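Hey, I was hoping to borrow your eyes for a little while. No rush at all, and the record is pasted right below.
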Amino acid sequence: MRFKLIYLILLSFISAFTLISPQSAHSAQKQNPNLNTQWKLYTLSIEDQKQTGLKTDILAALILEPKNGWYTYSHNPGKLGQPTTLKVTLTPDNTILPTIYLPGKLKDDPFNKGQKVATYSHPTPILVPVPPSLKSFTLKAKLSLLMCSETACQPFKTDLSFIGIAVSTETLPLANVQPWWAEFVELRKNAKPIKISLKNIASVESKKTATAAKTQPQKNAPPAQVKNPKPDKVTFNFDSLKPRPFTPGLEVTNLSTAILFGLLAGFLLNFMPCVLPVISLKLSTLLAGAGHESVAEQKRGFREHNLFFALGIMLYFGILSGILGATGMAWGQIFQKPPVVIGLTGLVFALCLSLFGLFNLPIVDLKLESENSGPRSQALFTGVLATLLATPCSGPFLGGVLGWAMVQPHYVISSVFLSVGAGMALPYILMAMFPSMATHFPRPGAWTIWIERAAGFFLAGTCIYLFSILPEDMHIPTLIFMWFVAVGAWIWALAGGTDKKSTMYLMRVGALALCIAAGFWAATPHERTANWIGFEQEDFTARLGREAMLVEFTADWCPSCKVLEQTVLTPANLNRWQEKYGLTFIKVDLTAPNKTADEFLRALGSRSIPLAAIFKPGEDAPSPTVIRDLYTTGQMDEALSQTLE
């Protein structure tokens, strides 16, 4: 009776949403977790206006603040990189305001060795002069940029707005005391003055009207003869693209088509190559219940396992539809969240250790002979986990279905995602409907240990995949987290051999606490500094005598160097020293042979590392203070004080 009830729940879950039809379509604004944006207003004095050539006393700034080690290309990045652009409109009359971009900082392009690009890696303003006669106004902006880390890039486009009410220049902060002011003044040297007023900035509509008036011939006047007309300059923007589908008959245009294709796409998702790493999770479905003695028990166990496995798939897709509908994220974009990937890596690694016999998990247990967990909860959570690991996949029909669905209302998104989940769960529902299939599977025996080990290697491969999509600077914290997971698994296994339940529970709670604490530590963004500059002889020579510099010699094969970077040359210390002394930090990497770097090291009287050198500005620049071998934060503080104060 209870199985009929589960059948009814699943079928009702699927069919209820097939009756829904969308009424309107709207786009969801995508937010980027690696970028903060903030509007600010500043005031310009008469002297500031003369320095910058801006004839207005109000300056708006959209502050771009990349986070977590990401950066964006500047407006003029050089030969490589996508420019950051901001189009600002003053409403309600659609006046387009000018935008002024700072040049950005040069950095080595991680995707093109030997090339440099101009980037925004620190809080950087895009400046927008505002007509001074306005006291209340609304700014509408379209921001387009390319967010990059050291290993990946993601295009980002969003709409932003700012509402200013009763703006008074007397209460606004001064622009000339901001950290970007000197760079802004340098940029505006020899630039054409910009007078910001509503009269000399034509609105979008007025430009069209003026153009139409000029091209329309006057009455009683002969038509003008135009010789050698020049074609208008075409300005490209992404909104002008009009894609043509290769298979228009397979395009999704309504909810019924989306649900039909969603069912088919979900079913095909089971057979995509990118789902193969989770095949070890599906082996438990095929072999569930094969070890029971009676045929009736085999059928019951097989049917129960497949039903709860399918319910786990539907549960995941239901939760995922809510998350994506509320946040506007794309399919698979959840894997852009490093904490999610780190947590999933730890869980899959624990599964791997379980299959290799180190311990048995209490809930998500794939071991065929385990008796530690209930078969229903095991099947449910295994279905959830298998679907989570399959999320980055995109099979036939799925792209078109999600492309249409993700710009629809929330209830449409939910219905489409549940149809995809129903399609993926369909094979397991069908197997549950025919439980006699369980009698065709071989009984567990000595050979099953090989199945378990093979499944463990599949999961180990999945760990490698998850590890590869993490940012490079999180690799070491993730490896440390996995080490603690192994220790926690070992403690868990030891707890199973104790006589007292209180001792067992205490040890297992401690093991869980250890893993959770290590996971939070690994997933917490560490304080970062983007101050290090790679050593290049020409760049160093240009800075020598002009800037205070701290030069560190390091290498990946130098353990002492890594100890210093984790204990002394920490982001907190570097930020503190930069604020106090205005230091420029230069890193000389000796991981690979580098003749110029070796000559630099010998010139400082050393042939070994670690070594740090402090260069002061002025005539004494060629006589740096050198600190050899291991040193403490206090010793570095003292050396900086003696050299630079």
